């Protein structure tokens, strides 16, 4: 607006000058009838002295002119006038430039307001950080290793810069941006005080606090009205209602041949005549996941843990991971057939070798994800069992109780559960439990068949695992654990039993 007002005033001034110049010229022309001497070289004096003074002042550019009188007595004058064209285009450009400058000024001024607000925020933040440092210094634990003096010095310096900039802001935005970067760096420095703690005092305190919180959570969970885990039944007893839960896995050891031997079996030998005996056996298969040519015995779990005082044996004719040890004998599926064999653990001699009637073999009905386990031996509190399938059962699981001396079949039950859909099985108190794979970290005990009643049904007991595939499961009646061979690792689980007779979730018809 200021530029526009100046422009109008200049126009009025110019127009006034032009009008006065025109008046002078008109007055001069009116004197044409008066006689003029040719020798006159001075300007014609106008009637009013005051008007002539004004003309001489304003029209100074017109002082240079020539005049003459023609033959008719007419006065003729030649006046040299300057270029009187008004520079409208320049004025327009000037107005446009002034408008742009006004917009830029308003934009920069708005940025300044925003920066002032940000500076106030950062000032408060710095004050809070200073308070935090002071509180930490006053704590009961000494933090002499932390350089608090340096931190407070930097915070105070930044605080002074913020105040000075807010009060005397005259610089460009670059200064504010640099200040913002400094404040951000200061914030990160204070938040990372732990890196200055050479003794890791802060880290240890946080770990201790986390442990205390976990202990409080455990105490709180105990006080809640949650059914406590029922006490285990007496070793070797079946006075319970069946398996209702299972513990997390405990990794005992990697098999002695190494990680590449992912298939096999292991467990604790069970003898009803000597239930206290702690003879552990490990039988990894060859790298082809089929042939069983060697096994190892340990007299205690401690020896197994450190691979000490082991007895190694070679047999060269076993197949699959369905092996079990019972009454000082090892029971295996004979290689490339349906025969089953008994091997004395003291002499390593085969004492019995006979066919299992109608049993399918050589991967006809093996477990899911596990080959060459068409025939699987199991032991419980009552007897020696063999799990298999036949063509007559159309691949469904067949359970047979064996005479552990002669390997004759004493009794048989045919289930409605398809064997290749099961990942593995175990037997507790005459009840077969089957597992299946849920994902790479979880199995599920999902099916049972009770040979005592002939009933079968479904369960839903999750079972964690360390590796992807489970190759074998064996149960020991005395310690009531499951011994699991999991991709070369030796695991065991504690079983949890119900006090009351089992109420199945559903029954198969």
Automatic annotation (TrEMBL):
<feature type="signal peptide">
    <location>
        <begin position="1"/>
        <end position="21"/>
    </location>
</feature>
<dbReference type="GO" id="GO:0005615">
    <property type="term" value="C:extracellular space"/>
</dbReference>
<dbReference type="InterPro" id="IPR003112">
    <property type="entry name" value="Olfac-like_dom"/>
</dbReference>
<feature type="domain" description="Olfactomedin-like">
    <location>
        <begin position="237"/>
        <end position="499"/>
    </location>
</feature>
<dbReference type="InterPro" id="IPR050605">
    <property type="entry name" value="Olfactomedin-like_domain"/>
</dbReference>
<protein>
    <submittedName>
        <fullName>Olfactomedin-4</fullName>
    </submittedName>
</protein>
<dbReference type="GO" id="GO:0007165">
    <property type="term" value="P:signal transduction"/>
</dbReference>
<keyword id="KW-0964">Secreted</keyword>
<dbReference type="Pfam" id="PF02191">
    <property type="entry name" value="OLF"/>
</dbReference>
<keyword id="KW-0732">Signal</keyword>
């Amino acid at each position: 607006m200021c530029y526009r007002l100046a422009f109008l005033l200049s126009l009025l001034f110019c127009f006034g000058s032009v009008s006065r110049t025109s008046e002078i010229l008109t007055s001069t022309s009116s004197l044409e009838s008066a006689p003029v001497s040719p020798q006159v070289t001075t300007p014609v004096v106008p009637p009013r002295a005051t008007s002539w003074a004004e003309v001489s002042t304003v029209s100074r550019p017109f002082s240079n002119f020539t005049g003459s009188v023609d033959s008719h007595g007419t006065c003729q004058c030649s006046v040299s006038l300057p270029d009187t064209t008004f520079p409208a285009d320049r004025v327009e450009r000037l107005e446009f430039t002034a408008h742009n400058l006004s917009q830029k000024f308003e934009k920069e001024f708005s940025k300044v307001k925003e920066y002032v607000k940000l500076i106030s925020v950062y000032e408060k933040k710095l004050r809070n950080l200073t308070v935090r440092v002071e509180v930490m210094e006053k704590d009961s634990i000494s933090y002499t290793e932390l350089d608090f003096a340096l931190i407070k010095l930097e915070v105070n310096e930044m605080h002074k810069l913020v105040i000075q900039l807010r009060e005397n802001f005259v610089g460009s935005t670059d200064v504010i941006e640099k200040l913002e970067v400094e404040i951000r760096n200061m914030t990160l420095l204070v938040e990372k005080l732990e890196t200055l703690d050479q003794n890791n005092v802060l880290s240890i305190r946080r770990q201790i606090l986390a442990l205390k919180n976990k202990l409080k959570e455990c105490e709180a969970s105990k006080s809640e009205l949650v059914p406590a885990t029922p006490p285990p039944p007496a070793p070797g007893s079946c006075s319970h209602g069946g398996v209702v839960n299972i513990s997390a896995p405990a990794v005992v050891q990697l098999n002695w041949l190494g990680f590449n031997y992912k298939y096999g079996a292991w467990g604790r030998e069970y003898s009803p005549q000597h239930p206290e005996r702690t003879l552990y056996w490990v039988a990894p298969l060859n790298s082809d996941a089929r042939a069983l040519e060697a096994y190892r015995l340990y007299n205690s779990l401690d020896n197994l843990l450190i691979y000490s005082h082991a007895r190694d044996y070679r047999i060269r004719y076993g197949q699959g991971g369905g092996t079990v040890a019972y009454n000082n004998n090892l029971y295996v599926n004979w290689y490339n057939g349906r025969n089953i064999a008994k091997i004395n653990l003291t002499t390593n001699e085969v004492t019995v070798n006979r066919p299992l009637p109608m049993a399918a073999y050589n991967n006809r009905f093996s477990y899911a994800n596990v080959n060459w386990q068409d025939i699987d031996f199991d032991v419980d509190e009552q007897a020696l069992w063999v799990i298999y399938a036949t063509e007559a059962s159309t691949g469904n699981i067949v359970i047979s109780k064996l005479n552990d001396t002669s390997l004759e079949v004493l009794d048989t039950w045919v289930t409605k559960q398809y064997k290749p859909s099961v990942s593995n099985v175990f037997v507790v108190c005459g009840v077969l439990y089957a597992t299946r794979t849920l994902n790479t970290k979880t199995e599920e005990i999902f099916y049972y068949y009770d040979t005592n009643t002939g009933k079968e049904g479904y369960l839903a007991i999750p079972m964690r695992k360390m590796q992807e595939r489970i190759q074998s499961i064996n149960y020991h009646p005395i310690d009531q654990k499951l011994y699991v061979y999991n991709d070369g690792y030796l695991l065991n689980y504690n079983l949890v039993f119900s006090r009351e007779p089992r109420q199945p979730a559903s029954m198969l018809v």
